[in-house]
Amino acid sequence: MKKGIFFLGLLVLGLSSRAQQNIDDLLAAGINDAQQFASDYLRPASDGLMYSMNHGWFNDAKAKKKFGFEISIVANAAFVGDDNKSFVLDTSQYENLQFRDGSLQKEVATAFGDIEGIVVVVEGESSVPLIPPQDAEFELPTGLGESNINFVPTAFLQASFAPLKGTEIKARFFPKINTSDAKVGFYGFGLQHEFTSWLPADKVFPVAISGLIAYTHLDGSYDFTDTNIVDGENQRFENNTNTLLFQVIGATKMPVFNFYGGIG
Question: What InterPro entries does this protein map onto (predicted)?
Fold first, then answer.
């Protein structure tokens, strides 16, 4: 999944056009090398995106009253630590990518890093006899570290409805965003049931305990036909990600201040 998610990172992070061009340039090294680099480069973004997709399903373990409903806009932010702002690029793991200075390994920036001036070379091929191949040379992209951005933000519309005692049906939706070369959107459904609602002493029991099952689907595509780096038509990366969440939720039922949390 993470190998096909770099186009989502371009949307979520809003990387500069220069960074997008640098990633497009990697296609000259072949699809496998481009996916390998994109997987490492955007790992903090994809991890943050996965966390955000599964977060924010509940704000209480106590279910709403029968026929109660709620509509809200949920915003999340996954923060990125310093240890996720760079990674070691090992050229032995790549088919066609080499460092210009001959190094076998180097520390390079992730999408949240700030390491500039790393130049790589892709060995070219010549289809004309007696004419030597021309190597492609370009600089690896830096990240958002130069702008002091260290988090992945997400936001979506979420609704919940209680058709039965102790049970809530939930749904979340993020409308599909279309740019000139990329599309991304997601939706999800969840079911939360409060086990303690069936206890005889429910109203005096100081803690509510619920179970939650939630499913989220994300899909997107990145069209690189117009890059003119690889010949062909309708060339794109496509990604479909499905997540399933199981949690046990607990919350206090005090008159003024309450606490809640989940395990799963």
Answer: DUF6588
